[in-house]
Fold this protein.
Amino acid sequence: MSSQSAGVQASILDRIFKLSQKHTSVRTEIVAGLTTFVAMAYILFVNPNILANTGIPHEAAVAATIWSAGLCTLAMGLFANYPVALAPGMGLNAFFAFYVCGTLGLPWQTALGAVFVSGIVFFLLTVTKLRQLIIDSVPMSLKAAVVVGIGMFIAFVGLQTSGIIVASDATKITLGSLTDTKVLLACLGIVIIGVLLALHVKGAMLIGIVAVGILGMILGVTPAPQKVTDVVSVDFPGMGETFMQMDLGGAIHYGIISIIFTFTVVELFDNIGTLIGVTKAAGLMDKDGHIENIDRALLTDSLGTMVSAVMGTCTVTSYVESTAGVNAGGKTGLTAVTVGVCFLLAFFFAPLFGLIPGFATAPALIIVGAMMMKNVLGVNFNDYTDSIPAFLTIIMMPMSYSIANGFGFGFSSYCLLKVFTGKIREVTPVMWIVTIIFMISFVMHG
């Protein structure tokens, strides 16, 4: 490529992404995008494994994960000009698989219908500016507790998947066999990822997953690839079995208000929190806390939720791993476009994702849960009417195997404690509405 044509391309990219205005360069943005992709590529292994528990064919889950992450991240870069990557959300996929399809026993098609409806709700909240009202109505302690509770739930699922925690007739759950090779490998995975994170090694999650997967093959506890096409292939996986399979009628007929509410609220708060953190690190937030193009980012995310349901996966959301790219210098949407292209190129390695067993991806779930624990600092432990509802939110999610139940116990106890301690003015009308919905749901479902 001649220097003149390279200069023309750089000029076009500069106009599209405002590189000069943001004091960055094409090279810096591409390096930042590669950094973000490596940091979050573990989702390509983890999400299909989680969705497989619902009955979704693994190959279709891989294709849906790649398409939704790739297209939505490209949209975030081109439309909002944000260095933020999107992919099916951790926590949201656990809620989708283990509660909606597992505990409630709903078909995955119905669950996809609920995801699509939540995307419509999020879209309406975005364009009508109601999202801010909802965010402001929920107390900070409960917002923090919801994130921590979901982290506990994710970690609990990881502990079960790895065999570290198993069922027990006497105590319900107990410690698994530490002489089991798979359990030992999962424990090793936790150590590997933990050490790499502590040493600030980029791609720690991905390295840990691949390392444990390879060790499993070496030790003969999981099948190893026999030919090149077992790892790399041009015969891309299709998502024909999941594309446009969401059952809107089933979702509406079931009356899953709490499920749609949970998808919407978790996505709303998770996305807002991530965008605030990433945009602040990228210098996109002014001194008054105003974030440029925030509505475009939220609009992209809400449309992405509907796209993910159409593709056949759970809700996509902004990923906090985007901060890895920001720390590498990413400031514009070119970083996100680079990540999106990398996701689409992952189709060439789709066969590899089917070779990584559950005990290899489980450590990533446990570590993600540990990382989400830091949000407990947002709980006001000096006020029992705040801390007790927060605790119930956190503990009830893993113990009842339901994120929705954690929401319900937290919201309901918050309102009741405030009423009986003379602090009713701290309860907003929106909180009352949410609490009433949950109480009705508890009664209806016994």
Remarks:
- The chain has 20 helices and four strands.
- The mean pLDDT is 80.
- Strands lie at 86-88, 165-168, 172-175, 316-318.
